[in-house]
Amino acid sequence: MTAPLRHDPDCIFCKIIGGQIPSRKVFENEEVFAFHDIHPAAPVHFMVVPKAHIPSLAQATPEDAGLLGRIMLLAPKLALEQGCKPYPDGGFRVVVNTGAEGGQEVHHLHVHVMGGPRPWARG
Ligand code: 5GP
Ligand code: ZN
What we know:
By secondary structure, this protein is an alpha+beta fold. The protein has one domain: HIT-like (HIT family, subunit A, 2-Layer Sandwich), CATH 3.30.428.10. Helices cover 20% and strands 20% of the residues. It has a 5-stranded antiparallel β-sheet with strand order 1-2-3-5-4, covered by helices on one side. The protein is globular. Residues 8, 11, 13-14, 53, 108 line the site of zinc ion.
């Protein structure tokens, strides 16, 4: 039997993954959930999050290496599906805010994927 995924009942992203808080879903499989940012900073702005509650990149362990790699490989695929133009003229930005000084507001590891025609609201 596989171990249950880590879960924090007070975490807003765990609630989104569990469907208790609605979101605009981009993608889902057994280990990740992707959804549009409620306050987009770019024409395309979604986040890819592990379903397991990992508070930030600072708590990721060697066991998470495969998961993190698969999230990185998912980003370009989903970015194209969401309307980003292909590399090199298009492309996208990947951001993982980590900790207070890293600008992290939600403490469930998430990978921002932003793209689309500039200018963007932030950056
Ligand atoms: P952070 O600053 O932690 O890297 O990013 C958290 C992001 O989550 C922010 O860009 C914010 O707009 C987004 N966010 C916060 N609450 C919600 C929510 O309830 N639904 C969605 N879709 N995005 C959220
Ligand atoms: Zn969580």
